[in-house]
Fold:
Amino acid sequence: MGALDFLSDYFTINTRRKKRKTMQTVEIKVKMDCDGCERRVKHAVSNMKGAKNVVVNRKQSRVTVTGYVEPNKVLKKVKSTGKRAEFWPYVPYNLVAYPYVAQAYDKKAPAGYVKMAVQSLPSPNATDEKLATLFSDENPNACSIM
Structure:
């Protein structure tokens, strides 16, 4: 048996399955001035392997790519067109606790968006924060004993 096991190691075929990339959405900020710029960026990204849907919004300077792609490769592909590009730095206005903080507010942001900034306030889901707001005057559902 030992000789057969030894020989079988030389004649076995190891087939490794490639792990498929996950479906994701990549948003990139790209400065586009004209239809030609828009067409060049869209053509470059839509020819990428794994890109399923490409949406270009010139007014917001935004490119959204959905598919089985890696974010860094999409960014590199957009930069190869000669345009300045970066990952989309904005989040919707209503997702930020304090949107007019100096780090979050940006005049160049599209309407309804602010920059992604780390908020200095504690998480509202923290247990000590829940206890502090339980008896707060600002909480309309606070204890009626107070």
Observations:
- The longest strand covers residues 24-30.
- The beta strands are 24-30, 51-57, 62-67, 85-87, 90-92, 113-115.
